[in-house]
Amino acid sequence: MYSATGLVSIIWIKVDDHANIPAVIDSMKKTGLEDYSILSVEDYTSLISVDNIPMIRPFTKVIIGLAVVIGFLVVFQSMYAVVLERTREIGILKALGASPAYILGILLRETIILSIIGVMAGILMTYGTRALLNLLVPTMPTEVVYIWWPTAGLIALVGALIGAIYPGLKAARQDAIEALSYD
Amino acid sequence: MIEIQDLKKVYHVGDVDVIALRGVTLSVKGGEFVAVVGPSGSGKSTLFHILGGLTPPTSGSIHINGRDLLRMSESERTNLRKTTVGFVFQKYNLLPTLTAADNIEIARDIAGRRGPGDPQFDEVLKLLGIEGRLHHKPRALSGGEQQRVAIARAIVNHPAILLADEPTGNLDTENSQIVLGLLRSLNDRLHQTILMITHDHDAAAFADRIVRMRDGRIVD
After folding, report:
1. Which of B50, B72, B73, B82 to mutate to test the interface with A (most CBs of A within 10 A)?
2. Is the whole-model pTM more than 0.90?
3. Does domain B30-60+71-218 have CATH number 3.60.15.10?
């Protein structure tokens, strides 16, 4: 851990009472150990927390931000492709007398259902990923952050809706003859 | 029923004007079955697209049941397709993810006719011979069956006019005869006004009257 193989790097001392820790540390320092770092377990673990690693919090936020943007773009792009593939079907609906609002309504209902299914599948996959991580790297602690579920769900839904509305509006307003000849 | 006077249609393709109709005059009575024949590029499809409100004409006049299509807005033409005109296409154009029944039902839904079925229409389904195939998706139906479903969808809202654009173009001889016989029956029994585009003179013979087009004009 400290790259000091064969040397003593850390000594753990068990104190009879938690309240005696400051007194024990003081008395140890007075016995010639003032050049050594003597810490309580709380102080020691706080040294390896994210608060003591410079820039780790902004770095984490950047990674989360990137994941959110990439997730949004993937959902947007997928819905865009799905709607574009259905241009001919939209042309058929137009020939049957469907208004742009009717066509958009169908697309948005489908998008919402697809998004809900996608979010549920994503949540289930979270547990699958955690089980896999626990199997492959048992020492690495993992945590499911439930507070992210509604946020992630909202990102997926908004991304999908924007991804569907743009080509949906375009297709619903498109000339029916052109839409019917789309392959 | 349909009164067309000096109808012209010009498409603008880039900087080029393509004249599709050069002054078509035609009158169709209610309950008539008219076949429109002519070579490719003669303007048959353009005439149908205008009649069906899919594209506006450039000039002339066109009245369906007294309503002037030239003065119609986009939403009025959408309404025309919903209530007055039914389309049958060469490629059937059924929605692949829906069953035959749902393909017919969606036309009712678009027209705002939700609710219980239409007993009179059940008779039409029997006439079309598809009442046993309604729960199949288009991919499980033969070409002839798909076209019969498309005919059912086109007439489910009792349109004043049925426009059939090469309805037998993708069918073999046997299925062509079945579909043409059904169009004839719909005209005879229900007095459905039908306009049918076809290249096939044998198919045109099923109609009451044959109109010939060439170079954007009616020649006969």
Report:
1. B82
2. no
3. no
